[in-house]
From TrEMBL:
Record key words, sorted: Fatty acid metabolism, Lipid metabolism, Mitochondrion, Transit peptide
Gene3D superfamilies found in the cross-reference section: 2-enoyl-CoA Hydratase, Chain A, domain 1, Lyase 2-enoyl-coa Hydratase, Chain A, domain 2
GO biological process, one term: fatty acid metabolic process
Designated gene of the protein: echdc3
Family statement: Belongs to the enoyl-CoA hydratase/isomerase family.
Lipid metabolism among keywords: yes
InterPro entries (alphabetical): ClpP/crotonase-like_dom_sf, Enoyl-CoA_hydra/iso, Enoyl-CoA_hydra_C, Mitochondrial_ECH-domain
Protein name as catalogued: Enoyl-CoA hydratase domain-containing protein 3, mitochondrial
Species lineage: Eukaryota, Metazoa, Chordata, Craniata, Vertebrata
Classification via CDD domains: crotonase-like
């Protein structure tokens, strides 16, 4: 499931309201966008019972800088607060609990209001270039721009820009 999130053509949004532990924290780190309530906490506590959270560490290590907290928290099992998760990139946005549903749906609607083929192309390019060197990543991004311009929605976007509408 965790690896499929990057492969599906639409963005996946996590809505977190409480504890996201071990694989739950991994799921949050794997999602494209994560919105969390202020009361949420994130942890990989397996080390406390003799089981290092190895698979969660893959997604978390790619979402959160190593020295900021992710590896240290995996080594100690200590939780990360919602604001710490925001500061270090594990979540995209923190909102009061009563606004969580509304804000998550607002973000989803903004994505739905855009071109699905363009979003799909962009998501695939973004994740594809992440594991590449800088030159290869720019080459991939350049090709994605050409592919995007070939899409009907890309052509309409350029036309509307030129016509100032």
């Amino acid at each position: 499931v965790m690896t499929l999130i990057q492969d599906i053509p639409v963005p996946v949004i996590a809505k977190v309201n409480g504890m996201a532990m071990a694989a739950g924290c991994q799921l949050v780190a794997s999602c494209d966008i994560a919105v969390a309530s202020e009361k949420s906490m994130f942890a990989t506590p397996g080390v406390k019972i003799g089981l290092f959270c190895s698979t969660p560490a893959v997604a978390i290590g790619r979402a959160v800088p190593r020295k900021a907290s992710s590896f240290g928290n995996a080594l100690t099992g200590a939780p990360i607060s919602t604001h710490g998760a925001l500061l270090h990139g594990l979540v995209s946005k923190v909102v009061p609990e009563e606004k969580l549903e509304e804000e998550t749906l607002r973000i989803a609607q903004k994505i739905c209001d855009t071109s699905r083929p363009v979003v799909s192309l962009g998501k695939a390019m973004f994740y594809g270039q992440m594991a590449q060197g800088c030159n290869t990543a720019y080459s991939m991004a350049s090709q994605a721009m050409v592919d995007n311009l070939a899409l009907k929605d890309g052509q309409e976007g350029i036309k509307s820009f030129i016509e100032k509408r």
